[in-house]
């Protein structure tokens, strides 16, 4: 691969998002367009919880490897965003409020008993990737946040418009992400533009973003196979057939 200029590298990364980001996935389109029933929406939120809850562990593993106080301060904000500065604050708590609003038992969601196996495999692969690969690759893998503000706006408006069991309060998780994600992606993109200077480094960065897009895409593949095509694996959430999943 020929070494790209910083602008050309950024253009390549944005092309990856245009082609591979999970807003193009059929399950995601169905979610936004009101084509899912309540059980399917609940299954999406329940499975996505494991991803949300694993983000702080992913970020903490990278934080421990960052070589300067400046970088650690920057990345520490992500932990605070997701874990909060005190109990019942932060993104993970807001996601549990979302599953509460959908009528799911918080204990059941946090137990992960109803989660699809493929969700666990995909999320764990992402956590391991960030823990084991280079700092440059780990930071590049977060660049899906470049594309999240558009999908968040579309998700919130579409779900409020199409699902009478969803309120603005239910979707409160997404409001802070409209400012947090651009802030975080601006930093990550600037870091990648500065530090991916060789062909090998640029190939690594491109591969990291492709990998992260594949993680998010594969999670929706599993949801579609189980809940739209009717092939749920044993033991997973099945709506009314899983009574322990619902709040009393």
Automatic annotation (TrEMBL):
Annotated GO molecular function terms are: pyrroloquinoline-quinone synthase activity
Asked if the record carries the keyword Repeat, the reply is no
Mind listing the GO biological process terms from this record?
A: pyrroloquinoline quinone biosynthetic process
EC number(s) on file: 1.3.3.11
Q: Which SUPFAM superfamilies match?
A: Heme oxygenase-like
Q: Which residues form a coiled coil?
A: none
Q: Which reaction does it catalyse?
A: 6-(2-amino-2-carboxyethyl)-7,8-dioxo-1,2,3,4,7,8-hexahydroquinoline-2,4-dicarboxylate + 3 O2 = pyrroloquinoline quinone + 2 H2O2 + 2 H2O + H(+)
Q: In which pathway does it act?
A: Cofactor biosynthesis; pyrroloquinoline quinone biosynthesis
Per UniProt, the keywords (alphabetical) are: Oxidoreductase, PQQ biosynthesis
Q: Which family does it belong to?
A: Belongs to the PqqC family.
* Stated role: Ring cyclization and eight-electron oxidation of 3a-(2-amino-2-carboxyethyl)-4,5-dioxo-4,5,6,7,8,9-hexahydroquinoline-7,9-dicarboxylic-acid to PQQ.
Entries under NCBIfam families matching the protein:
PQQ_syn_pqqC
Protein's name according to its UniProt entry: Pyrroloquinoline-quinone synthase
> What species was this sequence derived from?
Kozakia baliensis
Organism lineage? Bacteria, Pseudomonadati, Pseudomonadota, Alphaproteobacteria, Acetobacterales
């Amino acid at each position: 691969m020929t070494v790209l200029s910083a602008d050309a590298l950024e253009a390549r990364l944005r092309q990856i998002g245009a082609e591979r980001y999970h807003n193009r996935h059929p399950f995601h389109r169905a979610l936004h367009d009101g084509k899912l029933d309540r059980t399917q929406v609940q299954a999406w939120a329940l499975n996505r919880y494991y991803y949300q809850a694993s983000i702080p562990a992913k970020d903490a593993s990278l934080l421990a490897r960052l070589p300067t106080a400046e970088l650690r301060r920057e990345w520490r904000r992500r932990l605070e965003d997701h874990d909060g500065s005190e109990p019942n604050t932060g993104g993970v708590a807001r996601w549990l409020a979302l599953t509460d609003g959908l009528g799911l038992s918080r204990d059941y969601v946090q137990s992960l008993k109803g989660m699809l196996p493929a969700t666990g495999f995909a999320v764990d692969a992402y956590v391991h990737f960030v823990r084991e690969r280079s700092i440059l690759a780990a930071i590049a893998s977060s660049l899906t946040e470049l594309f999240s503000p558009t999908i968040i706006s579309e998700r919130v408006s579409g779900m409020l418009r199409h699902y009478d069991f969803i309120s603005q309060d239910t979707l409160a998780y997404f409001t802070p992400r409209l400012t947090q994600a651009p802030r975080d992606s601006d930093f990550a993109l600037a870091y990648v533009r500065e530090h991916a200077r060789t062909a090998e480094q640029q190939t690594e960065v491109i591969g990291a973003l492709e990998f992260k897009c594949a993680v998010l895409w594969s999670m929706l593949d599993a949801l579609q196979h189980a809940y739209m095509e009717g092939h749920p694996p044993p033991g997973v959430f099945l709506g009314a057939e899983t009574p322990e999943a619902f709040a009393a």
